[in-house]
């Protein structure tokens, strides 16, 4: 979810959506595919574009390190906590409708980010962006699944993944150029033409579909997990300034833990109506795969937050150069993932999920000893290349 990677279950989501029961022209299908690519890529690109602009935002708004972290955290917290609710809402009220609603919310929040007079308004606007992304992302996947039948889905998924990888790779470079030559505020205006184009294509060519067996929304589960994650995240970000033994920090950690426990209780009570049915974790493979993904994204999130700061502040890179420095990582992640299926079929998932994190750990080891004043080719590039193992999922 940092911006270069897509959730590992995307293809599975598309495959489980029933196809629309009326024959559609190839032109209509392809333009619907274009709408889903543009819409979903907006949400994932936004995190990576913002990362390269953080040093400029920190200087312009006179923000401290903890507040700057919340520019990223606010977006990811709302997206992560509400994306399952967004999918259920799309099934219940209509996928095209929720997709366009998500685009609208995302675009208005982007304008608010661009106009933010201070760090507080920017963080609040980023949270609203996360809410919009939680609506449009699952709805775009469901639209894609409802448009293409089983014979065409593999082709559609390949085009969708490849185009998304190209846009994700170009995002930081374009964002960095805008920071250097226009303003950090301009990076949020990138979303406006993309949203207008995606909404226009969806309203004109996409079919409206619903799930007749859609269940009631699990609002209590979404609220408890969002509050719990927000409280713990705030507490962890406050530790450097306040200290671990500060009463406010301890209260925040306790509150977050209590709400996460409450979330588990709520999900257990709702059973199959829950946004995260606990019965899924009865599968050892499911639990292990999710734990592995959590740890990898945990490490990756920190690296992609601090690396642009190091490149710009210590290495003297411009924002454009810092964005370009991440290109090998983005391209390998994006296009390498499309070849992973064949490797899994040949070697099995267990071997790849063992080797991949080991190679990733080697990449982090090289990152720990980076001298940002050295050449890019001997400092940053080995780290970005070692992280290709993230595709082996």
3D structure, described in words:
With 393 residues, the chain is mainly α. It has 3 domains: 1-211, Growth Hormone, Chain: A (Up-down Bundle); 219-274; 286-393, no CATH class. Helices cover 79% and strands 0% of the residues.
Which labels suit this protein?
15 helices; 0% strand; mainly alpha; disordered N terminus; 393 residues
In short:
The chain is mainly alpha-helical and 393 residues long. Helix content is 79%, strand content 0%.
Determine Rg (CA atoms, Å): 21 Å
Relative helix content: over 70%
* Average pLDDT over all residues: 82
Overall structural class, as computed from helix and strand content, comes to mainly alpha
Report on the biggest sheet: none
Number of helices: 15
Q: How many beta strands in the DSSP annotation? A: 0
The CATH class designation of the largest domain is Mainly Alpha
- Mind telling me the CATH superfamily name of the largest domain? MFS general substrate transporter like domains
- Spatial shape: globular
């Amino acid at each position: 979810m940092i911006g270069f990677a897509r959730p590992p279950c995307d293809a599975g989501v598309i495959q489980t959506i029933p196809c629309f029961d009326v024959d559609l022209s190839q032109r209509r299908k392809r333009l619907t595919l274009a709408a889903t690519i543009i819409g979903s890529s907006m949400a994932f690109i936004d995190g990576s574009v913002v990362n390269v602009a953080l040093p400029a935002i920190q200087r312009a708004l006179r923000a401290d390190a903890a507040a700057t972290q919340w520019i990223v955290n606010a977006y990811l917290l709302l997206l992560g906590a509400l994306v399952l609710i967004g999918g259920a809402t799309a099934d219940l009220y209509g996928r095209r409708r929720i997709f366009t609603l998500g685009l609208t919310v995302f675009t208005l929040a982007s304008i608010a980010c661009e106009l933010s007079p201070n760090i507080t308004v920017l963080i609040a606007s980023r949270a609203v962006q996360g809410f919009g992304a939680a609506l449009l992302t699952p709805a775009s996947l469901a639209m894609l699944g409802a448009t293409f039948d089983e014979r065409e889905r593999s082709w559609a998924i390949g085009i969708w993944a490849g185009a998304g990888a190209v846009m994700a790779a170009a995002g930081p470079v374009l964002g960095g150029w805008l920071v250097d030559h226009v303003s950090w505020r301009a990076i949020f205006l990138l979303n406006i033409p993309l949203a207008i184009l995606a909404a226009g294509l969806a309203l004109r060519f996409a079919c409206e579909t619903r799930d007749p067996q859609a269940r009631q929304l699990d609002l209590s589960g979404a609220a408890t997990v969002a509050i719990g994650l927000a409280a713990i995240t705030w507490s962890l970000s406050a530790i450097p300034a306040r200290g671990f033994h500060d009463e406010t920090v301890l209260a925040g950690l306790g509150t977050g833990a209590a709400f996460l426990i409450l979330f588990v209780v709520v999900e257990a009570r709702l059973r199959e109506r829950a946004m995260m049915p606990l019965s899924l974790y009865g599968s050892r493979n499911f639990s292990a795969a999710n734990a592995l993904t959590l740890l990898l994204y945990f490490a990756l999130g920190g690296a992609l937050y601090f690396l642009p700061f190091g490149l710009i502040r210590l290495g003297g890179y411009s924002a454009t150069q810092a964005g370009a420095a991440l290109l090998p990582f983005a391209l390998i992640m994006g296009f390498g993932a499309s070849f992973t299926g064949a490797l899994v079929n040949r070697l099995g998932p267990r071997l790849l999920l063992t080797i991949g994190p080991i190679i990733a750990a080697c990449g982090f080891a090289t990152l720990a000893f980076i001298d940002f004043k050295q050449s890019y080719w001997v400092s940053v590039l080995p780290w970005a290349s070692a992280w290709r193992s993230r595709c082996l999922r």
